[in-house]
Design a protein that fits this description.
CATH class of the largest domain: Alpha Beta
Strand content: 15-25%
Oligomer: single chain
Helix content: 40-55%
Number of domains: 2
Number of helices: 11
Length: about 270
């Protein structure tokens, strides 16, 4: 049976504690559909019993499994293509020498966003570049490192990138494609919880944190954005999705255009 409203509230609090993500009441069906198999294979009769296991010392590894199942989000290549056009124009204006261009896909899920960005960087960045792709879900990070995707999820890749940076699968991999090793090897994938300490990441010219802010409440959004501001270079750029806005959430940024931001300190410095 699905969890009761009271039990679902316990899961809401647990998920928010560990990930910062708030599951609204209408997501109870999602939680039920994604965790029901875990109850079955674990021979557990109720969501209350499963919850008690998750919060016990014996349930530490199962808690990670449950969090990953509930927080996995669907994505695809070149989602919100206007962002990649903007990044292309931005790279065209970059000096052809100087320090390495650094980017971070901060909620990369199964890697489609990161590899989309990597294709743009490889094609249009005139100087060395590096790309960190992170997600709270270690399972999707493991899959992203392989760079193998079913064809239906790659339809938005521009033809010139498809030919240059992807290889069609054969045999048992027919119907799939794989990102070429030259590109895979340039993306560093890592498991990272945005709620944790982010001290050792360095600073980035570009941070993408798209389609994830909608899962946090305002307090958590503000805390995460404050952390990200410390890892954005003074002249850097922050991208959220077109369905998200930082208006009224953080004073650390100002809007260049919808969903694209820069540090307010950069604007204030260049006013003088």
């Amino acid at each position: 049976m699905p969890p009761s409203d009271k039990t679902f509230t316990r899961y809401q609090d647990l998920i928010k504690l560990h990930t910062g993500i708030y599951l609204p009441p209408h997501k109870k069906t999602l939680l039920h559909s994604r965790l029901s198999k875990r109850l079955f294979v674990s021979a557990i009769a109720s969501y209350d019993e499963y919850f008690d296991w998750l919060v016990s010392s014996a349930g530490e590894s199962e808690l990670q499994v449950a969090l990953e199942l509930v927080t996995t989000n669907e994505t695809y290549f070149f989602r919100e293509p206007a962002h990649f056009e903007f990044i292309k124009e931005l790279l065209d204006k970059q000096p052809k020498s100087g320090e390495r261009f650094s980017a971070w896909s901060a909620a990369s899920s199964s890697g489609e966003e990161a590899y989309s960005l990597a294709m743009v960087l490889q094609a249009y960045c005139f100087k060395p570049w590096e790309l960190l792709a992170s997600d709270i879900n270690s399972s999707v990070i493991s899959e992203a490192k392989k760079g193998i995707y079913i064809n239906q999820r790659t339809s938005k890749i521009p033809p010139e990138f498809l030919n240059k940076y992807c290889r069609k699968g054969v045999g048992k991999f027919q119907g799939y494609l794989r990102i070429v090793p030259e590109l895979r090897n340039k993306v560093k994938f890592d498991t990272l919880n945005l709620m944790s300490t982010l001290q050792d990441l360095g600073k980035f010219d570009l941070i993408l944190i798209r389609n994830v802010m909608i899962y946090f409440d305002d307090e958590t959004r503000e805390a995460i954005l404050r952390k990200l501001s410390k890892h954005l270079k003074p002249s850097g750029w922050l991208f959220v999705s077109h369905s998200e806005s930082l208006h009224g959430v953080s004073g650390d940024y100002y809007s260049i255009k919808p969903s694209i931001y820069r540090l307010a300190a950069y604007r204030d410095e260049h006013r003088n």
